[in-house]
Design brief:
This protein has helices at about 10-40, 45-55, 60-75, 80-90, 90-110, 115-145, 150-180, 180-215, 215-220, 225-230, 230-250, 260-280, 290-295, 300-325; strands at about 285, 290. It has about 325 residues and is an all-alpha fold. Strand 1 (about 285) and strand 2 form a beta hairpin. Helix 1 (about 10-40) packs across helix 12 (about 260-280) and helix 5 packs antiparallel against helix 6 (about 115-145). The chain is globular, with a radius of gyration of 21 Å.
Length: about 325
């Protein structure tokens, strides 16, 4: 049965790498904006913070499901890689989990405590969001560096951590442009304009570092005719960045036209950046150490897992789409009953 679609040791690892990559990309976009809203919490007025929470309230739990799915796929499909990656990144993984726990607790407690204690939980929500974003950025930086640990790789990981947190704050700000109005929307436009430069810095840093770290990636980017495959990605990214920059200078519109456009364009930018990383590192799941084919579980196991995934994935997608459809439109004032 496994041979019906070709060599299962080739197509099954490729399918699971694609599913894992898709889960990570969706997580970065969806949980990225609600982490970004949490990071921006410290810059908002107290009366605006409830509206910011209302804009992400129906979605943030479902958004984190994609992280669970991605890590689960890594564990069951590429167990050897799971061990190498998480053992090297143990400390930032723990910090990320602590940040997610702090976010979840703060999200609930801030709505139920006495007004005198609400500020504490607002600060905790900000701290948990920032901790999570910085930990993920640190992990991304070390991953790009091939999980090597030295002063240089730590410095790059620190830069990536700051830039990813800024990227999350940026997509959070354009989410608020779309989902809010009035003074908060205008403030979100100012946040987005300020953060765009840090987003550009992060993209440039990762784009320069990846080929310099690996001779294989360098040749994949700059050899002929391979350069033709990559050329559209930086060109399209530059066009999208320019479009976002121009668009932010013309927002908000009096009739709220195009409030959705910066968020949609930012999704496109994240997709292009992710495509560049995927192109660079394929077929490695642990950079320069372990390919997806070497790290994959047995084909029989992968087939069973694939059947289960084909049931689970549509349910997660369907639930997410339904939630975004039901709670479409501008965020309303919070109400607890």
């Amino acid at each position: 049965m496994l041979e019906l679609f070709g060599d299962p040791t080739v197509w099954l690892p490729f399918v699971f790498a694609g599913l894992m990559g898709l889960s990570i990309l969706i997580y970065v976009v969806l949980d990225g904006y609600d982490l970004g809203v949490g990071i921006l919490f410290a810059r908002a007025e107290p009366e605006q913070q409830d509206r910011m929470i209302a804009s992400i309230g129906p979605f943030w739990d479902a958004n984190e499901t994609w992280l669970v799915l991605a890590v689960g796929l890594l564990l069951v499909a590429f167990p050897v890689a799971h061990g190498q990656i998480l053992s090297t990144l143990y400390i930032p993984v723990v910090l990320m989990l602590l940040g997610l726990i702090l976010r979840g607790v703060s999200f609930e407690f801030r709505a139920k405590v006495h007004a005198d204690h609400k500020r504490l939980w607002n600060r905790s929500f900000f701290a948990g969001s920032l901790m999570t974003a910085l930990a993920q950025g640190w992990m991304l930086g070390l991953y790009i560096m091939g999980l090597e640990q030295s002063f240089g790789t730590y410095a790059f990981a620190a830069l990536t951590a700051v830039c990813l947190a800024a990227g999350y704050a940026f997509i959070g700000s354009v989410w608020l442009i779309w989902k809010t109005e009035g003074a908060l929307q205008r403030r979100a436009v100012r946040w987005a304009r300020t953060l765009l430069s840090l987003v550009l810095l992060g993209i440039v840093a990762v784009s320069l570092a990846s080929p310099l770290v690996s001779a294989r990636i360098f040749h994949k980017w700059f050899d002929w005719p391979e350069i033709l495959l990559l050329a559209p990605l930086p060109l399209l990214s530059a066009l999208v960045l320019a479009g976002i920059w121009v668009g932010l200078r013309n927002l908000p519109q009096p009739d709220d036209r195009y409030a959705w456009a910066p968020f949609a364009a930012t999704i496109g930018l994240f997709v292009l950046a992710f495509a560049g990383l995927a192109y660079s590192f394929y077929p490695y799941v642990v950079p320069e150490r372990l390919t997806i084919y070497e790290a994959a579980a047995a084909p029989e196991s992968l087939l069973i897992i694939l059947i289960g995934t084909l049931f689970v994935l549509p349910v997660i997608l369907g639930y997410s789409i339904l939630a975004y459809w039901i709670f479409r439109g501008k965020a309303q004032d919070l109400s607890y009953h």
